[in-house]
Each structure stands twice: as structure tokens, then as C-alpha cells.
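Morning run. Coffee first, then this:
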Amino acid sequence: MRWITQPGWPGHLLALAGGASTTLALAPFDIWPLALVAIALFYLGLRELSPRQALLRGWLYGLGLFLAGTSWIYVSIHDYGAASPALAGFLTFGFCAGVALFFALPAWLWARWLRRNDSPIADALAFAALWLAQEAFRGWFLTGFPWLYAGYSQLNGPLAGLAPVGGMWLISLTLALSAALLINLPRLFADKPRLAAGVLLLLAPWLAGLALKNHAWTASKGEPVKVAALQGNVAQNMKWDPAQLDAQLALYRDMTLSSRPADLIVWPETAVPVLKEFAEGYLKVMGRVAAERDAALITGVPVRQANEHGEKRYYNAITVTGWGEGTYLKQKLVPFGEYVPLQDVLRGLIAFFDLPMSDFARGPSDQGPLLAKGLKIAPFICYEVVYPEFAAGLSAQSDLLLTVSNDTWFGTSIGPLQHLQMAQMRALEAGRWMIRATNNGVTALIDPQGRITGQIPQFQQAILYGEVQPMQGLTPYLQWRAWPLVVLCALLLGWAFVARRRAARSNDAMQAA
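And here it is:
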């Protein structure tokens, strides 16, 4: 086992493989113990490295994670961005190499300032705090890339009960702490006074997760609501083709007219693929159809309106018609898909940087829920549902959760199923039902425990019928969000830093003597 902790390519290759194996812990594979194993290998591999060596090993771990877990980026660039296989591969690798730095920097910090060789429990606590800080920073920096978090592996695992308490964040923290403590068990057995504390710290979160699994943190509000969620399965190369506009509008009109009675009729993201101002007549007609059925119609549609500076900007939006009202403008945009960073430089280089509707603006941050059939519905458009803290803000104001998406960009890759898993986690964290309507799958209804109660398979044109129950009350996570964990991690990292500095000064003093 020494070759794992020592510098050199055997350990580096294991780090690369460990990062890649995390993908198997997530959807659609769901082999959750692999998340624990991968983090344990990452922790063990940094035990004896210098800061520079740890930097490389951390980067390789991240590279393995993102090459395996976000392989769908190649599909988006090659299949829909008209890039050659070589160019798509180069851009995909470049992206993965860049985001892998999110693991390289913490590995360097760990080896340079935070590693505690004097206490296995303190060392494990500091590592867990750093792991969570890495995930949080990755979800925030440059608008964030909150994908492939370890905590999602526990959606159906023993720690799922912790999600309503501290969100996916608490699960990730527990996984990192458990992995480090497992690696430190030999040291703990050699340190009898600390053994009991270490074992308790290892077992307690898992026992709590099992005890709280399926616990009802929220309560029903009113009567169940009937839902009809439409999945049009429109090919991406037709989505923004002006010649196909009338056919797409007719498709959703006819599917709605043929649908069973429902309180909420939900169409997916940009189901109306034309600016709302040009589709007002169509939406008014469909609103009357919904109203005659005593229903609210919710659909994705792009919007053009003036911002606070009076400038006309484009927004990805959801709007309600029939028995409801409100329009929500998307706040969390997909880089390159909905806006192009450094667009003055990149636009025109390849077709991928000029995708249709890739010049959206961010909606204002003070938007509230949509209103439909007397219910407050928290709306999330596509990428927004992968942000835990962002989603919690709107969820706390709502009776139901709604996410609409167009995952056609992912093709037949694992991307849509990863996306679905994150939506399930948001329902579990909030203790609320979620309606998920997508263009080509997976359209689903998700209960407050994160379980799918009904779904339409991918790449099928169909309508999903079912009931959802409005909920009231707040889970601990919705009430407190991640702030208790932020404070805890700051204290643990500060403690580790100070202890490491004291130990260094003590060693220097002993050497001088």
C-alpha cells in the first residue's frame, strides 16, 4: 500500500481511476459505496505528498472524475455544435482539465497547511471540511459547475435521511469524514483513548441517516393536484428551425386537446420556440382552452423585455396561463448553451459558440414562485435545479416544485439521468413534490422522499398523468440552509491551520535546540 501514499505514477494513475469510479456511484449506475472508496483513495493518496506532488495528484483525481462523469459534453459539442471529432475531443478534454483544478487546489492546501499527522480524528475532520469547501466553491466560482457531487450517490443509500437536515452538503461531508476515518482506523486502534470517539464519529451519521430515512418533515396542504406533463420529443435539429415552428406549436396544442382532465398542464422548456411577444395569440388561445378545463397551463417560452437599464434583453422563461399567472425568468444560465463567456473572442470560431438562443440574460434575483390553481410553485429551468442553495430559496416559498428542461443536448449519454437524480435530491431536501417536464426525457413526478412515482421513458412522445400533493412546512435544510455547515467547516479548517502552524513552530524550536 505504500505506493499509494508515495509520489509517482502508480499513485497518480490510481487517483485518476479513483476519480473516474465516482461516476459509477451516481446515476444511472448507483453503486453508492464507490463514492466512499473514491474519496478514501483520494485522502490516502495525499497522506505523504509534498504540496507540489499533491497538486498533481489532486488534478488527476479531478480529471478522472470529469472525463468519465461529463463525457456528455463531447456529445453536445460534436453532435449539436458541428465540431469535428478531434476538435470536440480537444474541447472536452480542455474543459475537464480546467475544472479538475477544483481538486488540485484543495490537495495543495491540504498538504501545505492543513494535514494533521498528530491526530487521526482531527485530520479526518479537517479533510471532511476541506472536501465540503471544495464542493461549495465549485458550485459558486464563475457561476459554478455543481455537477458530480459525491452526496448524490446517497439518494437511495443509507445517508438519504440526512438530506432534509443539511442538504446534499451534509451527505458529502459525512462521506468525506467516513472515508478518512476508515483509512485512519489502524491509527485509531493504536491510540486506545481516541478509539471510542473515532468509532462514534464514524457510525453516528450513518445511524442517523438510517433512522431519519422516510421521516416526514413536511405536511400535506389541501387536496392532491392532477397533473398532465407533456413530452413532445422534438429533435434538437428541428427545435429552432423556423420552418418547424408551426408543427411544434400544433404538436403541443393537439397533445393538450387530447389529454385527460388535469389541474396543471405542463409543457417543457421552450416548448414554444419563439419569443413570447410573437406567440401571444397562440398562448391566449391555449390559456382559454386551459381555463375551460379549469386548469392552469405552464410552459417554457423565451421572453424579450427591458432590464433595469432599459436595454432589451432575451430571457429563458416559464409562463403561466389559464387559471394562473406569472412569468419566471431563468437566473442560472448554462455556459456556452445560453450565454458565451468571452463572446467577443469566441463567437464565430466554431458553430458550437453560435448555438441558437445562446445570448440569454440572467433574470432578476428577487423573483417569487409562480401561481397556478391557487398554489405557489417554485420554478426551475433546466440547469437551475442542480444548485442546492439556489433551489432551497424558492422551494421554501412554495407548495410544489417544478422543473422544465430540454435534455436533447445530451443525446443518449448519461447526462439526462444525472440531471434527473439531482432533481430528485432537490425534492428530498425540500420535502416537496416535484413535477419534471422535459422535451425528450426523463419526464417524471417525484415525491417528497425523492422517489419517482411516474415517468415517461426517454425519446418517446407521450403525456405523463399523475397526482402530486401540495406540502407545507420547512425541512431543517430549507430553514437553515447550509449556514451551520459553513460555520462548522470554517472552525474545523481554522483549527487545523492553527494546529499545523503550532506544530511547525514546535518542530523548528526542537531542531534549533
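The chain is about 50% helix and 15% strand. Good start to the day.
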